[in-house]
Design a protein that fits this description.
Strand order of the largest sheet: 2-1-5-6-7-4-3
Radius of gyration: 23 Å
Shape: globular
Distance between the termini: 61 Å
Strand content: 25-35%
Number of domains: 1
Oligomer: single chain
Helix content: 25-40%
Largest sheet: 7 strands, antiparallel
Number of strands: 7
Order of helices and strands: EEEHEHHHHEEEHH
Length: 219
């Protein structure tokens, strides 16, 4: 499909995986199609209900817990029209794209084997495997450290070898903040950028008036 020369370039959302210690980028996963909708939920982190102290009713323990849900589509139909130019898709369908997403929540197989060897050698405490830090990117205003909490795949079409060629992926993500990661963590720094951007956007919002509310002021 051709586009007009002056049409703006369509930006896409995606997930970037980085090393949590060095911040070196490990993989960039770009969505084939941007979701039509993105659902966000913010859970207030107050202290009033827990302590029972009325003086604590307006106090916050930290930023709200934000969760994000979206449905992404992966479709190999266009690539399969030109199999010679898309040999990987012709051979494996969309298995590679699905695997790239699924491996976000898989530990490294070599680390699993290493932990098993340590356990057999008599090491009493084997540390859980640390995964890469996932960054959900949805424009330059939203680069968020996240942990995948929900992941489901509906494979909707297959080729003659039963490779999936069309699928819908439903993702649920929990935004990680400084309370989760520690203030000096790379992910915490990115969250603080996101937090400050919200504060800046507030200053651009048009302020309301008492007259719009039908009152002259606060009694």
């Amino acid at each position: 499909m051709t586009t007009f020369p002056g049409s703006p370039r369509l930006l896409k959302g995606g997930i970037v995986l980085i090393n949590p210690n060095t911040a070196v980028v490990q993989r960039i996963i770009v969505m084939q199609y941007n979701p039509d909708t993105l659902s966000r939920t913010l859970q207030v982190q107050g202290v009033g209900n827990e302590s029972g102290d009325r003086q604590e009713a307006l106090r916050l323990k930290g930023p709200p817990i934000e969760t994000i849900k979206l449905d992404a589509e992966i479709d190999a139909t266009d690539q399969l029209e030109f199999p010679d130019q898309n040999s990987t898709t012709a051979e494996s369908g969309i298995f590679p794209q699905l695997a790239a997403l699924e491996m976000i929540i898989y530990p490294d197989s070599n680390q699993i084997q290493n932990n098993h060897r340590q356990a057999r050698s008599g090491i009493l405490e084997v540390s859980p495997i640390e995964t890469f830090l996932s960054l959900f990117v949805w424009s330059q205003n939203r680069i968020l450290p996240v942990r995948l909490t929900e992941f489901s795949i509906t494979e909707e079409a297959f080729d003659t070898s039963l490779n999936p060629i069309r699928a819908k992926v439903s993702l649920g993500m929990r935004v990680l903040n400084s309370n989760d990661l520690g203030f000096n963590h790379k992910g915490s720094n990115l969250f603080m950028v996101y937090h400050r951007q919200k504060e800046q956007f507030v200053t651009r919002a048009r302020a309301g008036t008492f007259s719009s509310l039908g009152i002259k002021g606060i009694p």
